[in-house]
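A quick word before the example. In earlier lectures we treated sequence and structure as two separate objects. From today on, think of them as two lines of the same record. Here is Aldo/keto reductase written that way.
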Amino acid sequence: MIESLTDTVLLNNEVRMPGFGLGVFQVSNEDTVLSVQKAIEAGYVSIDTAQIYGNEAGVGEGIRRGLASTGKKREELFITTKLWNHHLDYDQTITEFNDSLVKLGLDYLDLYLIHWPGNNEFLEPWTAMEDLYLSGKIKALGVSNFEIHHLKTLLETTRIKPVINQVELHPRMAQNEIRAFGKEHEILTEAWSPLMQGKLLEDDTILNLASKHNKSAAQIILRWHIQNDIIVIPKSVKEARIKSNAAIFDFELSKDDLAMIDQLDDGTRVGPNPDTFFFE
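And the structure line, produced from the sequence above:
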């Protein structure tokens, strides 16, 4: 379990990744600039974006401003983006990667993810990603929204095992089976939409625990992730909330607290089902 905003977890390729970061899903390019800058100034070192978000350029500018204002070096940050792998062959994957790198203003990525499995539309792009990894352009490779059967297919053919599976994960979609499979195969689990797009912030169980610990509902939920060894990337564009989301290392949920939150798991999604989302 991580114990600070900059604490890291060890990936299966010996690279270390922060266990807590900032996500920028559904954030405009303009708002992303300030969000990323303020996050870096608040001590965040991990930033997660994606090609399809349309804000990689904003992330890049936010990184530049954040580094300039804090004096940090690029090497102190951990930057993730994702490949929109719809109908991409090997060469197209290389092109899309390079385009993301240009928009971000970086010369390497810390983590590059296949965004969706689609109808098994990941095998050829993964081969290209492996070669980019072997050339030193990417520090670690991972996947997003993969079910267990997608992971099995990839593991049967891959030269390089994914280090991360980033999935929708929150107390109402705890992903216990995927987490167990990942642990068995040294693939860490990372949560997107950890707050269920805000839908859990008024839940009675969460609010009662927030009152008990004198914390916000969001802090209770994010602490649940941390104590379950789940990498988490909450989104916010407001500086106060960016700071508040990270203020979760001065308290601990008890076993009974965790059990109460665990009981909320009913498999409810707010995002697409990976088995039926085959791109558009």
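Notice the following. The first helix runs from residue 29 to 41. We will return to this example when we discuss secondary structure assignment.
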